[in-house]
Amino acid sequence: MPFSFISFIGPIAGMTTALVIFLGTSILLVTTAVVIILSSFLSWHFNLDINLAMVIITVLAIMLQSYWAKQLTLAEVYQQNWLQSRLALLTFLFKIGPLTAIVCASAILVITMLDNKMLAGNLFYTFISSWSASVLFAIFFTPLLLLIKKPQQLTPSKRFFIIFASCLAFIAIGLLFKISQTVQLHERQNMFMQMKGDIKQAIEQEVALAVSKLNSLSAFIKASQEVSSSEFNLFAEQVFKEDSAIRALEWAPIVEQTQRANYERQATSIMEQSNSEKMKIAQEREVYAPVHYVYPSLGNSIILGFDVLTNSTDVLTMTDIMARDNVVASAPINLIQDDHSNPGVLFYLPVHDVGKHTETPFLNNSHYKRSLLGVAVAVVQFEGFFNQMSELAKYDIDLFIEDVSSTESYILFGMQLNNSNRHVEQLDLVIYSRHWRINLVDQQPWQMQQKGWQTWGMLFGATFGGILFQLLILMMAAYSSELSAQVMRKTQELIISKDQSEQESIAKTNFLNTLNKELQTPLQAISLFIEQLKKTQQQQQQVTINNIDLAQKNMSQLLDMVLICRKLNQAN
Known about the structure:
- The protein is of the alpha+beta class.
- It has helices spanning 9-23, 27-45, 52-72, 74-79, 86-99, 101-116, 124-149, 156-223, 229-240, 260-266, 318-322, 383-391, 453-536, 542-571; strands at residues 246-253, 255-256, 271-273, 279-281, 287-288, 293-295, 328-329, 333-337, 340-353, 360-361, 367-368, 371-380, 397-403, 410-413, 424-431, 434-442.
- It has three domains: 5-153, no CATH class; 205-390, CHASE domain (Beta-Lactamase); 488-571.
């Protein structure tokens, strides 16, 4: 992925959340300094466009997220009960991760629009990826820092296992994200390389097609002693039946000064272009190359008689053409087409009479060993071809093509592109002495591009897999604490139950002792009264008194037996 300022905001926000919960809000000053230093480094080293508004929004979002997480978890951290149960752990992780990370992810959407200077686009992936980074950093580092600070009644072996497993899982998830991004980058680079090859091949084929038509025209002229207008038009008409970027074909014969009057009587006046771009009668010189034939003539008849040898200021030095046998391409020129102008390129091909070897004077007092019949010209406009090639592109890219043969470049196709957060590839082509530079750029920033199912699968899989792994690791510790608490509670309940049972037993014993004492007193009184009655009563009442005495003794024995059984139960 291309470097971008927003790629670092999510991790910084998650790490700051963990540090603020662990150390307090004083760490926010350090975070502010880190964000400012990081933005300055990225702006200087990677030439990223980071403005003050983006930095301010980033700092405020990080502060708000970390402070909110601190306030939400203040009671759990202070009371050290965030790991006491599974429900408490789940609530704690939800507060520091998925809930508060929405602040950072929402701020990144605003920063992305400021960074890319676009108010619309598919920003869902940017939101989810930044939210994911913040959540993973928060839920992995916050529990580790709190476990280092307070052991949470965990044994050293359990704490070591949790810390080691969490660090290992965090590294593995980070590597997965890195591998996924590297794969995406290589896939994008491969697509661009394929596109570069296709564009290069297409342009070379189109240029080769135009040059082949120019070579055919040259061969046609060489094969004929004299080419008439109808023959030229007939030949050109066959050329235009095939789909190509050629807009016009021209033939400019060499006319010496001694032949000028005769040429102008048979054809048209020889004209030249002044510095003010107005046509005027050509000045006297040794050699002329006026446009004699042009197809199609409709709309192009204005250039008939134009001396191509005078076009060297805006196009190229014609002496170079005469000294060659091959095609020479001109610099781009604006050509009027319909109601607007499009850039065009002139391909010149010198036509020599190979059967003659007389010396003929040319410009700059130079001499050429072969007779130059004239110059065949193909006017080529690539606007439609480039448009068609851009529309048929397999990927969402923009093309920007310019001629950079001189210090001042000339745009052939497209508009100056915004390279911010986009993948850029450059292709240099040499087109018959001209240097063309082709830039291939993503139409949209990489944050707003459509992502494939593999990318979404990796993002959601790594995110929720990391959250689930950390949750399970901490759940084991929380479940262990929960079991310990349950055991302690059951033990306390058993102790209380035993105490209550002992108290009830003591109470029953005391009650029986008291009851025995209370009953013994009236029974003894009854026994005394019976003894007295035995001495004073008559014989017939003696039986009744004996029965009462027997009942009193039985009752005394029964009370003694209850006391003995209670003592035996207490002893057991």
